[in-house]
Amino acid sequence: MTTDQPVPLVDLAAAHAEIEAEVRAGFDRVLASGGFVKGPEVAGFEEEYAAFSGARHCVGAANGTDALELALRALDLPPGGGVVLPANTFVATAEAVQRAGLRPVLVDADPEHLLIDPARVAEVLADAVALLPVHLSGQLAPMAALLGLAGERPVVEDAAQSQGARQGGRALHGRISATSFYPGKNLGAYGDAGAVVTDDDGLAAAVRLIGDHGSARKYAHERFGFNSRMDALQAVVLRAKLRRLPAWNEARRAAAARYDRLLAGLDGLAGPDGVAAPRTAPGNEHVWHLYAVRVGGGRERRDALLAALNAAGIGAGVHYPVPVHLQPAFRHLGHGEGSFPVAERAAGELLTLPLYPQITAAQQERVVEVLAKAAAA
After folding, report:
1. In what order do the strands lie in the sheet with 57-61?
2. Segments of the chain assigned E as strands
3. What are phi and psi of 151, to 5 degrees?
4. DSSP letters of 121-135?
5. Which residues neighbour 300 within 8 Å (Cβ) at sequence distance 6 or greater?
6. Contact 225, 215 (CB under 8 A)
7. Fewer Cβ atoms within 10 A, N terminus or C terminus of the chain?
8. Distance of alpha carbon 197 from alpha carbon 64, whole angstroms
9. How far apart are CA 111 and CA 88, in angstroms?
10. CA-CA distance, 241 to 186, in Å (whole number)?
11. Which letter, b or e, does each residue of 321-331 get, where b requires 16 or more Cβ atoms within 10 Å of its Cβ?
């Protein structure tokens, strides 16, 4: 039997309860040492996250947007060169490209999985010096196809939503990958933090140099850089959470499978104006950062279902209701409505349901019960 208790979109307090003692002990170590930036906690996390990712190197950063910019700058791409990325991503992906002195080249997504579409990438390759696929909602973009298209162009992976995800048994496929540890991520800090992961010794060294004012030793600045270093207190949190991340990701998979079963059992959610569960692309090991259903009938219907869920205390949400090309900040790219129809349609259809490792079966049943009543109204 379900209850009328509220269900949050993300429950960060539940995750904190599992690691509170470990984090407090780690904070005490940092406070006693006075080493608040970099230091042994950051070095320990970098080593552990590199191993978790199956990579040679991990370099901490202040946030995920900086991590993307650092990865791009480390490649020494031609100024103003085009970097291909999907239109249906958080604006930070495009921000990082522009901040690195490069030019966003937007493409549409595939209509089934809403990942960057290799067929659309192939159409703009002549205008590209690099590819920047986004691993959206917890599953990887089609990396084999993209690497085949890229040729000698570097592939930079935006892995902000895919911590622990694999494709063909591997997490890292391109030359370099960047991730965000924003609090709501599968591996979230208690503030902003990010990291760059790579197998390339030279790229790792360049990222570390650029993110520390271009300096490998105090007051000697070898190249232009900026300040983007991980705080030791955030590293303490991330180390505690990383030890639990495999189990937490498994719990997310179990919760996603439960949603799949609950949604499949509701005839009232079928049809062109119904609600469709998200799909996992072949070869992907999904970690379900988000569980976003697709609502038929257009944006107005989706927004009505969202309002009904929120009114009942269900913390549903909408991610990326406006694609990058329709954001005023990127009007200069020259795209208007209709430029990327799959991304635009998804922006009006997607509805994110609550999902986190500690969510209970009863909570999920309540979510789907409220959703079904709203859909049938």
Report:
1. 57-61, 194-198, 176-180, 156-158
2. 57-61, 82-86, 103-107, 130-131, 156-158, 166-167, 176-180, 194-198, 215-217, 220-221, 275-276, 284-285, 291-295, 350-353
3. 60, -120
4. HHTTGGG-SEE--B-
5. none
6. yes
7. N
8. 12
9. 12
10. 9
11. eebbbbeeebe
Per-residue pLDDT of the chain (377 residues; tens, 9 = 90+): 456 889 999 999 999 999 999 999 999 999 999 999 989 999 999 999 999 999 999 999 999 999 999 999 999 999 999 999 999 999 999 999 999 999 999 999 999 999 999 999 999 999 999 999 999 999 999 999 999 999 999 999 999 999 999 999 999 999 999 999 999 999 999 999 999 999 999 999 999 999 999 999 899 999 999 999 999 999 999 999 999 999 999 999 999 999 999 999 776 676 677 899 999 999 999 999 999 999 999 999 999 999 999 999 999 999 999 999 999 999 999 999 999 999 999 999 999 999 999 999 999 999 999 999 999 88
Amino acid at 87: A
Sign for the CA dihedral angle at 221, 226, 228, 232 comes to: positive
Give the position of tokens 């259809």. 349
pTM here is: 0.96
Q: Six-digit token pair at 368? A: 């789907």
